[in-house]
Amino acid sequence: MKVLFFGSLREQLGIGELNTALPDGVETVGQLLANLQAQGDEWKLALGSGNVLFAVNQDMVGENTPVSDSDEVALFPPVTGG
Amino acid sequence: MISISVQEQDFDTGEEYRRLQQAGSGVNNTDVGGIAIFTGQVRDLADNPLKFMRLEHYPGMTEKSLQQTAEQAAARWPVIDIRIIHRIGDLTPGQQIVFVGVSSAHRDSAFSACEFIMDILKTSAPFWKKEQHVNGDSSWVDAKDVDQQRAERWQGGD
Q: Is A2 within the bounds of a domain?
């Protein structure tokens, strides 16, 4: 699966894109976030604010949305356009 | 008709206005009774002057999100044309960021659709602003609660 990061999350993590297999036991986008938070201190710091939004295949979704290995998932902070 | 552009280059509000008058026909469209336009531009900060504002986005999702917002507006109000332009890249104070224009038979639907599009855009289109200050500091712009509240009020009636 492809996982994208934007804005301050991309900057804090130092990466914009992660190509990875769907981790074992991950069925929803919220579980994917928890899995990424457990990757290390900087992941926990960047993704642990409780203020992370999700998109699956370029639609903004809630944390209980299912994810599969073929999905494009994006994690980002609240948007500030306009 | 809905037209969306996400671009680095500036836009000409007068030209966009004339296109909305013509409704794509090349002559003034006499079905159009009103046109509402909103433009947003980079505001400088008195206490910490801006060198420029960097606008990042999520290519692909941005266009999809703006298209969906315009379609929601067109389903809700009897509009004729909707035009949305949002710029990306580095913009200095005073430069234009966003254009939303709506033509309709009557002003109420043009006003409402234009305001709806801006309110939904602010909370759902994947753009992020980072301020680069004259003093060398930089900071990501935080989302505002008031923007969320403005978007949520459209969940009720008109």
A: no
A82 assigned to some structural domain: no
Among B114, B128, B131, which would you mutate to test the A interface (most chain A Cβ atoms within 10 Å of its Cβ)?
Answer: B128
Query: CB of B118 within 8 Å of any CB in chain A?
Result: yes
* Structural domain contains residue A1: no
State the average pLDDT for chain B: 95
Check CB contact under 8 Å for A82 and B118: yes
pLDDT of residue A69: 95
Q: How far is it, in rounded angstroms, from Cα B19 to Cα B23?
A: 6
| A81 occurs within a structural domain | no
Minimum-distance CB partner of B124 among A74, A77, A79: A79
Whether the CB-CB separation of B110 and B104 falls below 8 Å is answered with yes
Could you report the per-residue pLDDT of A41-60, keeping only the tens digit for each?
999 999 998 899 999 999 99
Query: In B, which residues are within 8 Å of A8 by CB distance?
Result: 128, 140
Report, at the CATH architecture level, how domain B2-155 is classified.
Answer: Alpha-Beta Complex (3.90)
> Which residues of chain A register pLDDT less than 70?
none
* Distance between CA atoms of residues B138 and B52, nearest Å: 10
Which domain covers residue A38, as residue numbers?
Answer: 7-76
CA distance linking residue B102 with residue B73, whole number of Å = 10
**Can you tell me the ipTM of this complex?**
0.95
CATH number at residue A34: 3.10.20.30
pLDDT of residue A50: 84
